[in-house]
Amino acid sequence: MKISFSLLIALTLCGFLCAQTKDPIVIIVEYKLTHIIDSTQPGNPYIDNFLLLAGKQSSWYDKYAIGIKKIGRAPAPGTTSSGIPLSAFTDQNKASIYKSIDKHSMFTELVLGKVEYVVSEELPLPEWKITLETKNLGGYLCQKATTRFKGRNYEAWFTNKLPYRTGPWKFGGLPGLILEIGDEKKEVLFNFVSFYTASEGMEGLSENRKGIRISAERYRKIMTAIDNDPAALNNSGGGTGNLVAISVPIGGSLPTMPKPRKINNPIEKNDQ
Predict the structure, then answer these.
(1) What is the pLDDT of residues 43-97, one digit of tens each?
(2) Neighbours of 112 (CB within 10 A)
(3) Whose CA is closest to 128, among 180, 72, 172, 80?
(4) Cα distance between residue 146 and residue 192, in whole Å
(5) Which residues contact 269 (CB under 8 A, 6 or more apart)?
(6) Domain 20-235 carries which CATH code?
(7) What residue range is the signal peptide (predicted)?
(8) Which residues fall within 8 angstroms of residue 106, CB to CB, at 6 or more apart?
(9) Is the pLDDT of residue 245 over 90?
(10) Interatomic CA distance for residues 244 and 81, integer angstroms
């Protein structure tokens, strides 16, 4: 069978383009999440920082320490607001959210019991109502938009000066990057912390093809079980396995430890 020269070139070009599956990172955004995970303790919220890495057609989101390592940098010495050393965060305790915006798909990458899973589902597209109200965030003029998403009513601030249709966590679908978003009850709030453009040489974004695929329904059942009994995950080997040392001066006393929080107010509610 003869193959024309033009067809051969086309096949070669196709093979080359198909191999280029990584979307170059363009921007890096840091957010501070404040989440009242225990409704009986509104004054004791969960607080942590997260990184969003965004390209033209995709984005990746996870805790700050894991995101810093993903872009090839070492986190500064210190601990999280929960007292866990930043050095403790590795691929063994990630819970990343990868969005393929051009393919309308979303993948949650997580490790449970030292086994890596990938939850594949359709990219959520909230029904946004864009208003004329504006405010400045980080030097960017942002516009207000509202929606009901995953059981909560949200108010978002996005800027079309950064034309990336994504944001923290599972949010996206606006004609610009979401810099701040929170629910009307002020139980969940993602605040903008910092923004900078990616440097050359950073590895691009792509779907994780190594993990075991599970359905979104199976994932929800697993996370509900963990929320109800976090110790079960630790006993299975899926926890961080880290203890935080507390220094007590001679003759001193142990500091008063905060009351343990229950996880009875997840970000994602049952109704959509």
Answers:
(1) 999 999 999 999 999 999 999 988 888 888 776 666 565 556 655 566 656 689 9
(2) 20
(3) 172
(4) 17
(5) 150, 151, 152
(6) 2.50.20
(7) 1-19
(8) 97, 98, 99, 100, 120, 121, 122, 123, 124, 170
(9) no
(10) 12
Question: Is pLDDT of 136 > 70?
Answer: yes
Residue 109 · residue 214 · CB < 8 Å: no
The residue that leads in pLDDT, 61 or 209, is: 61
Half-sphere exposure of 187 (CA within 13 A, CB side): 18
User: Which residue type, as a one-letter code, is found at position 12?
Assistant: T
Q: Which helix (H) or strand (E) holds 107?
A: strand 105-112
> From CA 55, how far away is CA 71, in angstroms rounded?
13
| Boundaries of every domain in the chain | 20-235
User: Which two structure tokens, joined as six digits, stand for 232?
Assistant: 């079960």
For residues 158 and 162, what is the distance between their CA atoms, to the nearest angstrom?
9
d(CA 214, CA 12): 35
